[in-house]
Amino acid sequence: MPHPYVLLSAAVSLDGRLDDTGPERLLLSGPADFDRVDEVRADSDAILVGAGTLRADNPRLLVNSAERRAARVAAGRPAYPLKVTVSGTGDLDPTANFWSTGGEKVVYTTDEGAVTAAEALHGLGVDVVPVGPGLDWRAVLTHLHDVRGVRRLMVEGGGRVHTQLLQQGLADELQLALAPLVVGQPHAPKLFGDGEYPGGPRNRLRLIETRPVGDVVLMRYVPTAPGTGPVPSAADHRWLALACELAAECPPSRTAFSVGAVVVAADGTELARGYSRESDPLAHAEEAALAKIEPGDPRLPAATVYSSLEPCARRASRPAPCARLILDAGVRRVVTAWREPDTFVAAADGNGLLAAEGADVVVLPEHESAAKAPNRHLN
Ligand SMILES: NC(=O)C1=CN([C@@H]2O[C@H](COP(=O)(O)OP(=O)(O)OC[C@H]3O[C@@H](n4cnc5c(N)ncnc54)[C@H](OP(=O)(O)O)[C@@H]3O)[C@@H](O)[C@H]2O)C=CC1
Ligand SMILES: Nc1c(N[C@@H]2O[C@H](COP(=O)(O)O)[C@@H](O)[C@H]2O)[nH]c(=O)[nH]c1=O
Fold first, then answer.
1. Which residue range or ranges hold the CMP/dCMP-type deaminase domain (predicted)?
2. Which of 103, 163, 201, 377 ranks highest by number of CB atoms within 10 Å?
3. ipTM metric
């Protein structure tokens, strides 16, 4: 199910805290950084905070710049992004600034919480959406995408919300403003709480930008650890997009597909990448990538192969098709964008061959058009 692009945004102290324990909100950003945040808000379709942040900060979550609001309107968008909160209990204060400022609002809550929230917010025009007995984040993101048309979601905290989205592999990007102060209080709210994160403690996110903004440093990261089993993660989308980009590198052919592939370890380390006809005129992408990894590499059994096209199931020109090469390498997870059409081989079912031998195969159709793009001449 498609989700919006999920951007986690926070300002954090040198000791990893989002706030202090005092009654007033701690301002970690300075004026220049609050202006940067305003710009990120203006670029978003929706802004989400948890009910804990509503209670602690009583935020408005507006686009404060009149020019940015005007630019949104000129582009056919509402002046303000949709405001979103999540609550398990539904215990929400109807007098909070959140409800009386800005544009449309939606609350995602549990079946039980929906009764309390609907009563508390009666008459305020707020959409209260129950997502089941618990707060299922995938259901929240799917609803935002499919029903509210949200393509870019900015999440402004707090710690409990950021922690869950990162732990569940649902964050596409992190934007952290590191503030030059130390909170030092053991009970001050942390940016990321305890628990298991994708890829474990050895997983390194990819740094995509650093920039001083006044006296804070903006750091932007993207996740790298593949999902597990049949469940796709935000990092799976990123790696598959790379595989689709690699397909454009292939020497063109009228008699074979152009495909890209990447092999990634469970801790997010890229083991190899390849593309069709990279090393010889018959090489397939998965074959080219796997050939660069030492057979028996201990990281292979937990690795994921990303391939823009479903791995092949039959080959005349080689002893083994790519689905077999993947299984023989010990890999048990494959993410692909496009099922093989009957162009060269009728009813090829590489995904079926992989699944029959216990591999998890994840198809992400959102990337199908990118996978097909370098193969248009074969239509
Ligand atoms: N420096 C910064 O950039 C920012 C700092 N902050 C700070 O963070 C602190 C607030 O963080 P925190 O207390 O973690 O609150 P959050 O904003 O993360 O909200 C937590 C609340 O969201 C609901 N919720 C979230 N996940 C679930 C779930 N899986 N099931 C049920 N309910 C869920 C619950 O609401 P309910 O209780 O209604 O059931 C829960 O109490 C404040 O001190 C604030 O100032 C916040 C944002 C940014
Ligand atoms: N303290 C803090 C942030 N806090 C975030 O800003 C929200 C309040 O925004 P507003 O309604 O516009 O005042 C608050 O609820 C929380 O999500 N953000 C940051 O970038 N830097 C900061 O130092």
1. 234-347
2. 163
3. 0.96
Beta strands in 58-147 (DSSP E): 82-87, 105-109, 127-130
Express each pLDDT in 255-297 by its tens digit: 889 999 999 999 999 999 999 999 899 999 999 999 999 999 9
Domains delineated in the chain: 5-222 (3.40.430.10), 234-378 (3.40.140.10)
Rg of the chain on CA atoms, in Å: 23
Q: Of the bound ligands, which one is closest to the alpha carbon of residue 87?
A: 1
Question: Does residue 175's CB lie within 6 angstroms of at least one atom of ligand 2?
Answer: no
Whole-number Cα distances in Å, 203 to 13, 208, 279, 377: 22, 16, 31, 40
pLDDT tens-place string over residues 94-136: 999 999 999 999 999 999 999 999 999 999 999 999 999 999 9
Ligand nearest to the CA of 216: 2
Crossing angle between the packed helical segments 66-74 and 31-42, to the nearest 10 degrees: 10
Q: Which of 13, 24, 49, 86 has the most ligand 1 atoms within 8 A of CB, as the residue to mutate?
A: 86
Q: Whose CA is nearest to atom 46 of ligand 1?
A: 158
Residue with CA at minimum distance from ligand 2 atom 15: 59
Residue 116 φ/ψ region, left for φ over 0, alpha for ψ in the -120 to 50 degree band, beta for the rest: alpha
Helix (H, G, I), strand (E, B) or coil at 205: coil
State the distance between the two ends of the chain, measured CA to CA, in whole angstroms.
28
Q: Is the CB of 178 under 6 A from ligand 2?
A: no
Whether 86 lines ligand 1, by a CB cut-off of 6 Å, is: yes
Q: Phi then psi for 271, rounded to 5 degrees?
A: -90, -40
CA of 57 to the centre of ligand 1 (A): 10
Compute the distance from residue 47 Cα to the ligand 2 centre, in Å.
11
